[in-house]
Amino acid sequence: MKDINVSDHLSSKDRINMGSFYTPEKYVDLVAYWLIEEDISDNSVFADLTCGGGAFFKLHNRFPNNRFIGNDIDEQALETAKTYFPFVHYMSKNAFCHVSRKEFEIPETDKFIIIGNPPWNDSTSMTNKSIKKDLFCIDADIKTRDLGMSALLSYDKLEADYIAVLHPLSYLIKPANFKLCEKFFKNYELKRHIIFNSQEFANTSQLRGFPVIVALYKRNPGKGLSYKTVKGMRFQTVEGQTFSLSDRDYISDLIDKYPTPKRYNPEILFFTQRDINALKRCQTFMRCRTNASVDVDPSKLAYYCYLDCFKRFADVPYFLGNFNVPFFKSDFDSIKNEVICISKFYNQDIFGGGVKPSQEAVDRVNNYIRRVLTFV
User: Fold this and answer.
1) How far is CA 30 from CA 2, 25, 35, 331, in A?
2) 3-state secondary structure of 242
3) For residue range 188-240, what is the model confidence (pLDDT) as tens digits?
């Protein structure tokens, strides 16, 4: 039997451009359990509008008296889905263009549940940037830089009653992403969730995972999620860990993350900041100015040195990969001199020399970073 949870018919390039990473079966089972708890009635419509090989159609076993709709532009994936789930009504349309219930043959009066794992492809992400390109016509009112965000906006446009989908946690926790999806979030409350490592997807990079959320949203127009609510929310991982954005302070709140016209003497340059995973991939202090250079305010040098030490020493759990770099503002002064010393020693070409830090200093910084990264 072909594995419907693996998109092995696609090349790596096509998989990235189409955002096609198929869902592990255990998360389909979890969604089934959540929907049963919501007491979904018979004669509802279940639709996976980017269904791939049809992993989510296994929900039919739990909801046999409901109509199922499958759609995808990947004809080969649809053929696989048709083989194993013949009871589904299939279409092959662009799910992002001319979005309406009528387009997908869903009556306005029917209870409507969207299921699935919509495509993700952030055109601004530095990962695989050289092979990314736009493949889809997207309605202007749902067009964003990321297919997954556009998918969420399309679900709001369709006024789905429930939405049970996978998406990067970054859509929720990054303020800029949340704002792009705000039209969706203001109309949906998050009923249930679990977070897992993106490395669980087949055919993905094993170098550095990022957090993916399995989420059940319920429509509640005008009374959904605010970013303030998200900041105070306790997230749960499959490993049993919990964490909240409000548990930590963030270096990015105190520095310039992106290039500005500001200039300082002496000139010290630092690479543009995104999130922890980006910091781990990219350089920190820079010898030569580029369009990604941030000019370091000398009065804030310790914060940039902390970022440099964090990159060097931090063993970051995957679920924090899309966080800004955390720290404890209240006792940062306890390691301030140490991070400057360590960073100058490892970047002598930038600072014109440096003294080797003591092992005690290195240990204090390491212990501080470990404490920052320790969640219950």
Assistant:
1) 22, 9, 9, 41
2) strand
3) 999 999 999 999 987 655 567 999 999 999 999 999 999 999 999 999 999 99
Phi, psi of 264 (to 5 degrees): -135, 160
> Parallel, antiparallel, or unpaired: how do β-strands 242-243 and 162-168 relate?
unpaired
Q: By the 8 A CB rule, do 50 and 151 touch?
A: yes
Q: At what angle do helices 359-372 and 301-313 cross, to 10 degrees?
A: 80
Q: pLDDT tens for residues 350-362?
A: 999 999 999 999 9
Euclidean distance between the first and the last CA atom of the chain, given in angstroms as a whole number: 41
Judged by DSSP in three states, 154 sits in helix
Q: Give the helix, strand, coil percentages of the chain, each rounded to 5.
A: 40, 15, 45
Residue 46 makes CB contacts below 8 A (sequence gap 6+) with 59, 60, 63, 66, 67, 68, 69, 113, 115
Let me know the angle formed at the C-alpha of 35 by 89 and 94, rounded to the nearest 5 degrees.
35
Report the candidate in 319, 296, 317, 292 with the shortest Cα–Cα distance to residue 307: 296
Those residues with Cβ within 8 angstroms of residue 196's Cβ, 6 or more apart along the chain or in another chain: 24, 27, 211, 212, 214, 237, 238
